[in-house]
Specification:
This protein is of the alpha+beta class. It folds into three domains: 114 residues, Orthogonal Bundle (Butyryl-Coa Dehydrogenase, subunit A, domain 1); 98 residues, Butyryl-CoA Dehydrogenase, subunit A, domain 2, CATH 2.40.110; 146 residues, Butyryl-CoA Dehydrogenase, subunit A, domain 3. Helix content is 52%, strand content 16%. It contains ten helices and eleven strands. Strand 6 and strand 7 form a beta hairpin. Helix 6 runs parallel beside helix 8 and helix 8 packs antiparallel against helix 10. The chain is globular.
């Protein structure tokens, strides 16, 4: 059945005409171009590369950036793009999120004019793909402990190190690699054809299977002086990128939850057991009402987050609270939806099992649930429960 977006509290009325148009355009695109084939891609462990050009045509890549071929939408519109893409699949939203927030944003915010001109128009059009090299095999929640190093050479820099769990790594034309130069974290734009740079696909995943996840190896990778991002140094660089991406995740998780609720509601109204649709039984209605309640709260959190971002008042703690809440409720909703569908919920004929597995990764990446708990804890108490 056609998707019916849950809007129990009339939040649509709070959106601008442009934001609703963007949301509805992407919603239609997801229905037409993503949902018919995403289950098979997920089962096969393949990413639908044919979508990238369409993302570019629709202005979905770097959408909230201005100039250089970017659409210049509001942050809320960008969030709604993420919502609808993740309604299709978390892996699809991850592709767009990495491209837009983790690579295009730092080039736009911290890059030289030459770097912006070289990469942003091509990336906005979907003609170049980027990846974000921060996480390492032994340093995920503590990225400041990274071992990847950069040393100065006569005409640039030499990079050595390993990055792991890197979305888009094997399909990227440029990698934004974070490395320590004289003990200070700096960002380097590394074309992936550079000698010494290799990417290996991480296989055997049971989550985000329709997304490319890679391990990057840099062995004496020599880049020029023009590779370094001149506008930022220290952990402020990668952390500001992660704030942009986490903002999108807050909306994206709502999309996954809405997809699962809509499927569970439709199924429960059609599935007859003991003489009536199972939607008429108290236990199923409780599950559905819990979904409506949690999605509505998550929608309001995401909406307020967008307006705070637009006013320049958004804090990292507020993003952490929303990421922590919205992904957690989406994870629970996916499980309850799978329960309502019974055995059918574990087949690729339905969405909720795929979302259920994907959300295990979203729960963990770009700050685990526990780390975001401690970020908010520090924000409200003034006391850090972990080293920074």
């Amino acid at each position: 059945m056609a998707f019916r977006g849950l809007d129990y509290y009339g939040i649509d009325e709070l959106l601008t005409d442009e934001e609703r148009l963007v949301r509805d355009t992407v919603r239609d695109f997801v229905d037409r171009a993503i949902l018919p084939g995403i289950g098979k891609h997920w089962s096969a462990g393949t990413f639908p590369m044919e979508l990238v050009a369409h993302f570019g045509e629709l202005g979905l890549l770097g959408s909230s950036l201005t100039g250089y071929g970017c659409a210049g939408t509001s942050p809320t519109a960008y969030g709604l793009i993420c919502q609808e893409l993740e309604r299709g699949d978390s892996g699809i939203r991850s592709f767009a999120s990495v491209q837009s927030s983790l690579v295009m944003f730092p080039i736009h915010a911290f890059g030289s004019e030459e770097q912006k001109e070289r990469w942003l128009p091509a990336m906005a059009a979907g003609k170049a793909i980027g990846c974000f090299g921060l996480t390492e095999p032994d340093f995920g929640s503590n990225p400041n402990g990274m071992l990847t190093s950069a040393v100065r050479t006569a005409d640039g820099y030499r990079l050595n190190g390993t990055k792991r769990w890197i979305t888009n790594g094997n399909i990227a034309q440029v990698a934004l690699v974070w490395a320590k130069l004289d003990g200070v974290v700096r960002g380097f734009l590394v074309p992936t054809e550079t000698p010494g740079f290799t990417a290996r696909t991480i296989d055997g995943k049971w989550s985000l299977r329709a997304s490319v996840t890679s391990e990057l190896h840099l062995e004496d990778v020599n880049v020029g002086e023009d590779a370094i991002l001149p506008g930022v140094s220290g952990m402020r660089g990668p952390l500001s990128c992660l704030s942009q991406a986490r903002f999108g995740i807050c909306y994206g998780a709502v999309g996954a939850a809405m997809a699962c609720y809509d499927e569970a509601l439709s199924y429960a109204k059609d599935r007859v057991q003991f003489s009536r649709p199972i939607a008429g039984y108290q236990l199923v209605q409780r599950k559905l009402v819990d979904m409506v309640s949690e999605i509505t709260k998550a929608q309001l959190l995401a909406f307020r987050l967008g307006r705070l971002k637009e006013s320049g008042k958004l804090t990292a703690g507020q993003i952490s609270l929303a990421k922590r809440n919205n992904v957690s409720i989406a994870r629970d909703i996916a499980r309850d939806a799978r329960d309502i569908l019974g055995a059918n919920g574990v087949t690729d004929d339905y969405q909720c099992g795929r979302h259920m597995l994907n959300l295990e990764s979203v729960y963990t990446y770009e700050g685990t649930h526990d780390i975001h708990t401690l970020v908010v804890g520090q924000d409200v108490t003034g006391l850090a429960a972990f080293d920074r």
